[in-house]
Design brief:
The protein is of the alpha+beta class. It folds into 2 domains: about 190 residues; about 260 residues, 6 Propeller (Neuraminidase). The strands form 5 sheets. It has a 5-stranded mixed sheet, with no helix packed on it. Strand 11 and strand 12 form a beta hairpin. Helix 3 runs antiparallel to helix 5, helix 3 packs parallel to helix 8 and helix 5 packs antiparallel against helix 8. The longest helix is centred in the middle third of the chain and has 68 residues. The N and C termini lie far apart (about 175 Å).
Length: about 575
């Protein structure tokens, strides 16, 4: 044993420690050496402590390695868990559904199919609402005879073809709407005597199947039913609803296709009418401007060289204030005034000097007016609605409406609906129902005068074949626009506008003479109490021929005295076969 080992102070320092050097002693101020510093011995570093520290570091490194290994194991376990979870999820996704899962899925699908049925019905109803609005617009336009009467003939032919195509399309797609909304047939099934033992489908959910059971058997079936049987029934119902939805949505698709076609046709019609109106405006605007530049519209003389009595002279002219496009006129003996109607539904009362007295608002396209002298009521002719309106001039109230059966009154089908009844007159006769006879003039195809009776004091009614007394064609006359009766001469007067003539007829509706009628577009005729002849002219307003009655009476007397002098060459047409005189 080394003797140094027993003496701790004799141990050598570690090779890394500095060597032990004696401390330096500095001299004192007097030159004497400084006193020695106390002897401080450094603390020795033991090899044992160094070894222990080294071991501790080694342990720390081992622990760090263990911790790293534990982390790796934890990550591996997490990864395994995720993989296991993913495999379980995948296995669950590809696993067959159990009975209750199938029941829930089938029930949800059935509910969705029923919602689709309701949605298809809502779509069909909405399409019908839109189609109804479009059809209403087309019907309103097609009944506006005032619109179509101004169109050129070639455009009218295209419009007739358009309406034919539109009608076919509308009817076809209306059938598709019915197909979409119609209820499906219910099968007749044989009643069950009991609960089937081995049936796949007991038929418990659908009401038709349920009614095959009586109540006790039905309750027993619900107690015995299996989930698989319910699933089979749900799948059967779902398949049936799929077929129903397939048929419904096919019909709805066709319905909306038709709705698009009808919309395009309606837009095309509106564009065509707009273009026609624009063309008419472009054509008529220069004419109106020319007339405005030239002053008031000139009154045509009526072509006296073509024959007839040219005895009326130049008319006095009055503005038809408040009446747009005057179309009819009548004199009221009880009030001493004239009533004038217009195409746009206006009715105005004028005094004998041509000044407006009263305006009565009346809706409709009015063609003529007559005074029912026994009651003082006004009878208005509405061509578009095909009816007679009775109006009290005092109150302005409409007291009666009478439908005109055109075919029955004429005795034949009219050739042109836009050239219908234009004139109306009344001749007092106490022996007749209503106190007299009414006369209608039909403009053309046929140009005809019809005598009939009805009671204007009744609240409403119908004028048909049973009301007709007589029908009479006026030979070689067309465009019969107005008619009136003058009690002073006991004669009927009918305007033939295209020839600027007034045909003079006896009470039997036989033409005796024709009178030259100056004007522009004569549409109404009446005599006042003083014997003046009043004409309602569509473009010139009101025309008054002074002392027309005595002039006509003198001409009639001269013709009786010298028939050869009568150059009117009036024809004597015979009464139509089947006409009757009451």
């Amino acid at each position: 044993m080394n003797p140094l080992d027993s003496n701790p102070e004799s141990k050598l320092p570690d090779s890394g420690d500095p060597p032990l050097i004696p401390p330096f002693e500095a001299p004192g101020p007097s030159g004497d050496p400084a006193p020695a510093a106390p002897d401080v011995k450094p603390e020795p570093i033991l090899i044992k402590d160094l070894l222990r520290k080294e071991k501790d570091k080694e342990k720390e490194r081992e622990k760090e390695k263990d911790r790293e290994k534990e982390k790796d194991k934890e990550k591996s376990r997490e990864k395994d868990k995720k993989k296991e979870k993913k495999e379980k999820k995948k296995e669950k996704e590809f696993k067959k559904a159990d009975p209750w899962q199938r029941y829930k899925a089938l029930h949800d699908s059935l509910k969705e199919s029923q919602d689709l049925v309701d949605l298809a019905d809502h779509k069909a109803r909405f399409a019908l609402i839109i189609m109804g609005a479009l059809n209403a617009a087309i019907i309103i336009l097609s009944t506006r005879s005032d619109i179509f009467s101004t169109l050129p003939q070639n455009l009218k032919l295209w419009l007739y073809a358009y309406f034919a195509v539109y009608t076919v399309i509308a009817i076809y797609f209306l059938v598709q709407a019915i197909e979409s909304l119609r209820p499906r047939p219910i099968p007749n099934l044989t009643p069950h005597g009991g609960v089937p033992d081995k049936a796949d489908n007991l038929g418990l959910r659908f009401f038709v199947d349920a009614l095959r059971y009586d109540l006790p058997t039905y309750l027993s079936a619900w107690q015995q039913v299996r989930v698989s049987q319910l699933n089979t029934e749900l799948a059967t119902q779902l398949h049936a609803l799929a077929r129903i939805n397939h048929a419904k949505y096919n019909a709805v698709a066709k319905l909306y296709l038709g709705l698009q076609a009808i919309t395009v046709l309606t837009a095309g019609l509106l564009v065509a009418l707009g273009v026609a109106a624009w063309v008419e405006h472009r054509v008529s605007a220069p004419i109106v401007a020319e007339e405005a530049a030239d002053g008031p519209i000139k009154i045509k003389a009526g072509k006296p060289k073509k024959g007839g009595w040219a005895i009326l002279g130049e008319p006095a002219r009055f503005d038809a204030t408040g009446v747009k496009e005057p179309s009819g006129i009548a004199f009221s003996p009880a009030r001493g005034t004239l009533f004038v109607v217009g195409d746009e539904g206006s009715l105005v009362e004028f005094d004998s000097t041509g000044k407006p007295v009263k305006s009565i608002p009346i809706a409709g396209n009015l063609e003529d007016v007559a005074v029912h002298t026994p009651s003082g009521r006004l009878v208005l002719l509405s061509e578009k609605k095909g009816q007679l309106l009775v109006v009290d001039p005092e109150t302005g109230q409409t007291t009666g409406k009478f439908k005109l059966d055109s075919e029955a009154v004429l005795g034949e089908t009219p050739g042109d609906r836009n050239q219908g009844f234009e004139g109306l007159a009344f001749r007092p006769d106490p022996s007749k129902p209503g106190g007299g006879v009414f006369y209608l003039s039909h403009q053309r195809t046929p140009a005809l005068i019809v005598a009939f009776t009805f009671d204007p004091l009744a609240p409403s009614g119908r004028v048909g074949a049973e009301s007709v007394i007589q029908r009479m064609r006026i030979a070689s006359r067309e465009d019969l626009t107005a008619i009136t009766y003058d009690g002073g001469l006991d004669r009927m007067f009918v305007i033939s506008d295209t020839k600027d003539r007034v045909a003079l007829l006896n009470p039997g509706l036989v033409e005796e003479a024709e009178i030259v009628l100056p004007g522009v577009q004569q549409e109404g005729i009446a005599f006042d109490a003083a014997g003046n002849l009043w004409i309602a002219d569509d473009r010139a307003g009101l025309l008054m021929f002074s002392a027309a009655r005595p002039k006509i009476a003198n001409e009639m007397k001269a013709a009786e005295q010298d028939p050869a002098k009568d150059d009117a060459s009036a024809s004597k047409p015979s009464q139509e076969p089947g006409d009757r005189q009451k």
